[in-house]
Structures are given as C-alpha cells and as structure tokens.
Predict the structure of SGNH hydrolase-type esterase domain-containing protein.
Amino acid sequence: MGTKTWHLALVIVLMIILNLSTISRVDGEQQVPCYFIFGDSLLDNGNNNALQTNVKANYLPYGIDFPTGPTGRFSNGRNIADITAELLGFVEYIPSFATARGREILKGVNYASGGAGIRDETGQNL
C-alpha cells in the first residue's frame, strides 16, 4: 500500500472513530445536574424573541426542521447547545432565559443571545 493511500486510510478510520465517539451516550442518564449556556446566535434558543432588537430568528426559514417550527434558534432545527444537552442526558431542551420559570431554572438556563459580543462595538449596527 502506498504512503498516500495509507495516510488516507488512517484519516478515514480516525474520522469514523471520532464521529462515533461524539454520538455515544452513557445509558441515557443525565451526566450533570444543570447546564448553563452563554453565547451568541450559535447557541441562542429564543432569547432574542423577548428583546428589543432587529436580530431575530422566529420566522421561516429558521426552524423549518424543528418540530414546533421557528423558535428563535438561528438554525433550521436544533443547535449545538440542544445536541450537547441531549448527549449529557437531558430529556427536555434547556429553557431560554426569557421563558425559564420556577424550578425549571434549577436544571439550567440558556442566556445566549444573537448579536452578543464582548466588545463595545459588537452589534452597534443592529
């Protein structure tokens, strides 16, 4: 087997192993007691719906693959925070800060907001 073919085979095997390791779950049991999320539009699950901003994703085509339709996620379905929560064993989605109430807050809250940033000029044109 040529060197290039060997390297390609090794890369493919490693990619398969890494891919399989990311979808495994430990007996479906919740791995952590709570999950707090901070970030921008990559993780926002609807917080911007309740904010006075032009940065919103609560209309089609956003959420086209989500069971309930557009939710404010800047994606066509679940985002990486939703997938991570599922892999950590959470049965339900982590609620957005705008909608979290009562004991629901004890399992975690998503504080992410589209257009968020740490610099003063972040989002000034929004």
About this structure: Residues 23 and 87 are 7 Å apart (CA to CA). The first helix runs from residue 3 to 22. The two ends are 56 Å apart (CA to CA). Residues 28-107 form one domain.
